[in-house]
Every structure is written in C-alpha cells, then in structure tokens.
Amino acid sequence: MTTENFASQAEILKLARVLGTTPERLSYLGNVDAAELQAFREQVTNKLFDANRATLERMATASKLIPSPILAKIAEKVFGPLLCARIAGLVDVSRGVDVAKRLRPRFLSDVAAELDPRRASAIIARIPLDTVVAVAGELVRREDWITVGRFVGHLPDPTVRKALDVIGDEALIRIAFVLDDKSRIDHVLGLLSEPRFRGLLQVAAADEDLWPPLLDLLTHLSEKRVEQWSPLLGELPPALRERVEETLGQAS
C-alpha cells in the first residue's frame, strides 16, 4: 500500500462515518485521490448541517431566553446530541461555552461525535480544560478515533498536552491516522516527552495492525522527528523495518 493509499483509506473511514455506513461498503473508492474524497466529505457535511438552517437559527435565538443551567438540562433530556450539534455553531460563543461546561462528559462526547468542529471552533477552543480532558477520555474509551482527530486542530496546545495524558500510545497512533489536519501531526508529537515519542515506535512494532497508521504518520514527520526514531529502526521486525525505509524513501 502506497502513501497515497494510506491517505485515501483514512478519508474513506471518515466518509463512512458521515454517511452512516461501513468503510467496507466504500472500498471501491480506494483509488480515488484523498483530496477529492475530503472535498466530497466536506460537501456532504455542509449539506447535512445546512438542512433546516432557518429553523435551527430560530431555535438558537429562542435559547437566549433560557438560563444556561436550565438550557443544559433541556439539551440532554429533550434536544439530544444530534440537534445540539446542529445548533452549536449558531449560538453566541460565550453562551455556547457556558452551556457546554454544564453538560455531562458522556453526553458532550455524544455531541462531539455529531459535531462539525469547523462550525463551532471558537466554542471548542474555550471549553474548560478539565471538560475537554474528560471528553477525550470518554472518546478514547469508546475507541472513537475519528471524533478525537477532528477536534485536535481546534484546541490550544496546553489543552492538547493535557489530553495526551489520557490518550494511550496505541490510541495516539490510530488518532493520527484519521486526523483532519495532518499538518498538525508533527507539532502534536512534539508536545510529547522524548521517551514517550520514542516509545510509540516500539508500541507500533508489537502490533501489525498499527503498521499502516504508523507508516502514514511517518510521511508527516519533520526530519527532526525522524532522526529521533533513527536509532530504534534497527530494533524493528525486518518486515516493518523494510516498509519504514521504503516509506521514508517515498516521502523524501
């Protein structure tokens, strides 16, 4: 599998989520350019979120009349995660943050799975750190790598660094594979301690299922990060070492 296939495969996983289907049913798209798949996914997302926009805007306006503690209860008991996700990008930022921090982490995780973070980026960036970490932990427990990957680009570094404490090494590799903004991979890994960064390679080497996401991750690393791993390459299983060398050769 080439590096281009890795990118397309990651996009297929995310497109399947948006369409509510399985990646296997979209396997015929495997040779389509990843950028085209991403553009199509964003078009579908926009279509879904813009449906009934006038009604949603009226609901967002009406919600201003309800105190935040009561609105949070209504959100969980009446609206549900899908409707909350649709409205999130239409409410005032400070109001959205005030309501979000009152929601239970499990419910907020449900909302996050339905949300288009591009539409609520300002709210996401201001949600209290403890709330973000709790939601990250819940999403990791669910193995919802796609949702975590969609939010990384919308969070400040101190929040990402704290969230990394509840994201294990295997989870981090899988999240990197479906990260929406792959240009963030090298930066995020730079927030790790050097021992933990080097340990990622050992974790991936022990599980062949992690080899594809690891190889994809390599194509987005700076020369400095690759050099941090260089002393460990000789310890890899021969098959993985050969694929790593081939991938680095393609990326250079």
Walk me through what this model shows.
This protein is mostly helical. It has 3 domains: 1-51; 52-154; 168-251, no CATH class. The protein is 68% helix and 0% strand. The chain has 16 helices and no strands. Helix 9 packs across helix 11 and helix 11 crosses helix 14 (211-218). It is globular, with a radius of gyration of 20 Å. The two termini are 17 Å apart. The mean pLDDT is 92.
Helices and strands, in order, run as HHHHHHHHHHHHHHHH
Rg: 20 Å
The assigned structural class equals: mainly alpha
Major beta-sheet overview: none
Topology summary:
Layout: H1 3-19, H2 34-50, H3 53-62, H4 68-88, H5 93-100, H6 105-114, H7 121-126, H8 129-141, H9 145-151, H10 157-163, H11 169-177, H12 185-189, H13 194-205, H14 211-218, H15 223-229, H16 238-251
Helix pairs in contact: 1-2, 4-5, 4-6, 6-8, 8-10, 9-11, 11-14, 14-16
Q: What descriptors fit this protein?
A:
0% strand; 16 helices; mainly alpha; 252 residues; single chain
Compose a concise summary of this entry.
Helix 4 crosses helix 5 and helix 9 crosses helix 11.
